[in-house]
Design brief:
Helix content is 12%, strand content 46%. By secondary structure, the chain is mainly beta. The protein has one domain: Lipid/polyisoprenoid-binding, YceI-like (Lipocalin, Beta Barrel), CATH 2.40.128. Strand 4 (58-63) and strand 5 (72-77) form a beta hairpin. The radius of gyration is 19 Å and the shape is globular. Residues 1-20 form the signal peptide. Keywords: Signal. Residues 28-196 form the Lipid/polyisoprenoid-binding YceI-like domain. This is Polyisoprenoid-binding protein.
Length: 201
């Protein structure tokens, strides 16, 4: 009974606190790992959208609260930290093949650096930047939804910002042409992330 009461109190109290919070101040933020996910998917023989995720994303956001369009974003991903959930690891280390294989991500760091941010709605915008993949760098655009902000998270007691992002690229532009068109050229990337104040260097 006590556990049920505590859970009920938590569920109904935390959202109220979050909605009443002041916005996070301007400054440098970094991704909050436990609350960040980067997943990608491609067409698989026209039958499904094969989906995997990266577990090693690191991002830095220089946040400008007064003028969000003047903010700046840098994202770095280790492609070797990919998780495909391939069900037969005794047959093949599929994660290693995708992350480091020459026909795939080649073990080369993935990096996205913003160049321009356009705010096009109350909570939406587009981040234009340069995406480095397999050692090649080309323009890419991320559509972003600003989910919310608070000067002090009710549990973590630090400022937080939350975003959802989506990016679609043609992998062939970066030389990743394996099995096209059986495996789709378009790669859809979905990002869910929270940012917290960056640690002092």
């Amino acid at each position: 009974m006590l556990a049920k009461l505590l859970l009920t109190t938590f569920l109904f109290t935390v959202p109220t606190l979050a909605l009443a919070a002041d916005p996070a101040p301007s400054g440098r933020y970094e991704q909050d790992g436990p609350h960040t996910s980067v997943t990608w998917r491609i067409d698989h023989f026209g039958l499904s959208r094969y989906t995997a995720r990266f577990t090693g994303a690191k991002a830095v956001l220089d946040w400008n609260r007064e003028t969000p369009a003047q903010s700046a974003l840098t994202v770095e991903i280790d492609p070797r930290l990919v998780r495909t959930d391939f069900p037969f690891p005794e047959v093949e280390d599929f994660d290693a093949k995708i992350g480091a294989g020459a026909d795939f991500l080649a073990g080369s760091p993935i990096r996205f650096v913003s160049e321009r941010i356009v705010v096009d709605g109350d909570r939406t915008g587009r981040v234009f930047g340069q995406l480095t993949l397999r050692g090649e760098t080309h323009p890419a655009v991320m559509d972003v939804t600003f989910n919310g902000t608070m000067a002090e998270h009710p549990i973590e007691k630090v400022a937080k910002l939350g975003f959802s992002g989506h990016m679609r690229i043609k992998r062939s532009a970066w030389g990743l042409t394996f099995a096209i068109p059986a495996l789709g050229d378009d790669v859809d990337v979905a990002i869910e992330t929270e940012f917290k104040p960056a640690k002092a260097e």
